[in-house]
Amino acid sequence: MISRASLTGAVSAGIISADQADKLVSYLSLQAANIQKQQDQENTHDPEEVRFTRGFHDIFISLGILIVFAGYGIGLGEPLTQGGLPTAAVAGAGAIISWVLAEWFTKIKKLALPSILLTGIFGGAIALVGFGLFTPSVLNDESEAIQVILSSIFALGGASLFYWRFKVPITLTVIVAGIMGMIVGVLTYVTDTQILDYLSWVSLVCGLFAFACAMYFDTKDTRRETLNTDKAFWLHLLAAPLIVHSILSGIYFEELTETYAVVSIAVVLAFGAVALVIDRRAMLVAALSYLGFALAYLLESADFSASQLTAISLVLLGSFVLLLGSGWNVARRIVMRPLAGTTLTTYLPPIRN
User: Fold this and answer.
1) What transmembrane ranges does the database entry give (predicted)?
2) What is the separation of C-alpha 141 from the centre of its chain, rounded to a whole number of angstroms?
3) What is the pLDDT of residues 74-108, one digit of tens each?
4) CA nearest to 106, candidates 172, 164, 47
């Protein structure tokens, strides 16, 4: 900002008038205040801010929605378990009810949390319609694959219509899940269920596909200011457990040794590094359970009771979350240093102070 002394000198030299100098000081002061306000907002803005609720009103309405559909499910539980047309009819009626409620609470009232619930209920109900329309008398692996295909097609089609009408960000996650379910069902049917022998690899590919979709929306909004960040958030929540579980399932469902536990911790830490690079804490949520199991296994050799072992593992896990959460920006700066000046950084969120 130009100093007052410089402006006084400019007035004395006849370059500008005293009135112009006063107006220039006011303008520059206002600009400096706006810049400071913008910087303060950037420093306090949470890049993973997700629009769940605007107040307790949203929670109250959501509670009502859960009660209504809980009563609906309990009251019509018998036809839901019969399969065939009874299941399809009950699920279809539930989908219609959720759509009608979404017309009011989502389209008109713009309530975030109720919209999320109604999206999940509608997607599940539509999937049940497809599941109920094909219930053969004798179930085998091939017929189950066809059920998965039909359910996924119905969920995909219904979610696409729901997104076209209401534009709820989480609906894209339902669409991606429907695509993955349909592909897995088709592969199961075509390969005569042999693909199921490679389920962990299939899960990994599905997880990477969801991750790629999430990163597409993240790169479109690196400053996390539009609904694209909400779309990416839900897709990351879908991708993370698929990727982590497919990588670590062999470790935890085969023979457990200290080496496996250490390798598991290393995998989780590598996963954390990726989360830091893309600035998504949601990526770590799925990995925390595996980290807890690994810590508990390493502590088993110590002379602790079962309750003490559980308590210590939870305290260590919680401390890790608190430490990483508190120093997230510092850790991210360290991880991002090797990438400084590369083209990749243009597709990633900026490093915050």
Assistant:
1) 59-77, 83-102, 111-133, 145-164, 171-192, 198-217, 233-253, 259-277, 282-299, 311-331
2) 32
3) 887 777 666 667 888 888 999 999 999 999 999 99
4) 164
Give counts: helices (H), strands (E), the chain.
14, 0
Instruction: Specify the amino acid at residue 204.
Output: L
Contacts of 123 (CB under 8 A, 6+ apart): 155, 158, 159, 162, 171, 174, 178
Which token pair is 84? 């065939």
Q: Which two tokens stand for residue 73?
A: 């499910």
Tell me the average pLDDT across 336-345. Answer: 86
pTM for this prediction: 0.78
For every residue of 239-298, DSSP letters joined together read HHHHHHHHHHHHHHHS---HHHHHHHHHHHHHHHHHHHHHT-THHHHHHHHHHHHHHHHH
Output the CA–CA distances (angstroms, integers) from residue 194 to 57, 144, 169, 184, 186, in the order listed. Answer: 50, 14, 35, 11, 12
Structure tokens at 228: 């694209």
Give the integer Cα–Cα distance in Å for 33 and 45: 18
Tokens for 191, please give them. Answer: 């390969």
- Report H helices in the chain: 4-12, 18-44, 56-75, 77-82, 84-102, 112-133, 141-166, 171-190, 199-220, 228-253, 258-278, 282-299, 306-326, 328-336
Average pLDDT in the 192-212 region? Answer: 87
CA angle 156, 159, 164 (to 5 degrees): 125
Closest Cα partner for 178 from 131, 111, 227?
131
Q: Is 302 helix (H, G, I), strand (E, B) or coil?
A: coil
d(CA 230, CA 236): 10
CA distances from 268 to 91, 108, 133, 212, 290 (A): 39, 43, 42, 19, 8
Straight-line distance from the first to the last Cα atom of the chain, in angstroms, rounded to the nearest whole number: 23
Reference 242, options 276, 287, 277, 275; nearest CA is: 287
